[in-house]
Amino acid sequence: MQDLRSIGLEKGIHYETIITTKYNNKSNSAPIGVICTGNHSIMCRIFKTSHTLNNILKTNEFIVNVVDNPFAFTYSTLSTVPNSYLNSDNSLKCANSYFKCEVESIKDVVKTNDPINKSQKSIIKAKVVEIVKKNNKKPLNRAMDLLVESVHNMEKIDENPEYYLGRFKEAKRVITKVGSRKDKEAIKILLEELEKKGYGFN
């Protein structure tokens, strides 16, 4: 079986995907970030109250769809995609690639620094049992988009320093969390340039 590198996933990187599950002939889709932990393994964090987690607990399986369709993300966020978006195996028709997973472990966690109940999540570790590649499009990662946005914001920083410094702060937070080594190095260069311009970032 080909491994996750064949569809553009790198170990240690966080990708934006849509997970599809099915239980009692009822499908569900949800936008969920996954981290590639090996050539044939991933992990993800899912809210304990979600339909996705309930289905996974009952079936011990799910499909990770690598997709860049804006409507698929929108429908999955609001509820779930229409049945017309699904293949017979419950993968997304619009997926650039997808892989089927079997659960290896599930662990409940709570962020102690976040009093909101929604911070209760389950960490799922799973092995990849089948990979289907449709094209060579890369999986989504928020870091690159934020880096490009930060480049544009660099040109406008003098117009409204407080506003744009706030955007830089958020970009740094997300890139530090989900970005690759190159993404992190690139935002560091931009922030160093801000310091040279006299804009304290911390």
Q: Could you tell me how far the N terminus lies from the C terminus, measured between alpha carbons in angstroms? A: 47 Å
For the largest beta-sheet, the strand count, sense and barrel status come to: 6 strands, antiparallel, barrel
Order of helices and strands: EEEHEHEEHHH
SS-derived structural category: alpha+beta
Give the oligomeric state.
single chain
Taking Cα atoms only, what radius of gyration do you get, to the nearest Å?
Answer: 19 Å
Strand content: 25-35%
Low-confidence stretches: none
Textual characterization of the structure:
Helix content is about 35%, strand content about 30%. By secondary structure, the protein is of the alpha+beta class. Strands 1-2-3-6-5-4 form a 6-stranded antiparallel beta barrel. Strand 2 and strand 3 form a beta hairpin. It is elongated, with a radius of gyration of 19 Å. The mean pLDDT is about 90.
Give the helices and strands, then pairings.
Layout lengths: L13 E10 L2 E13 L2 E7 L3 H9 L1 E6 L3 H9 L18 E14 L9 E14 L8 H15 L4 H18 L2 H16 L6
Antiparallel strand pairs: 1-2, 1-4, 2-3, 3-6, 4-5, 5-6
How is this structure best summarized?
The chain is of the alpha+beta class and 202 residues long.
Structure characteristics:
alpha+beta, 5 helices, elongated
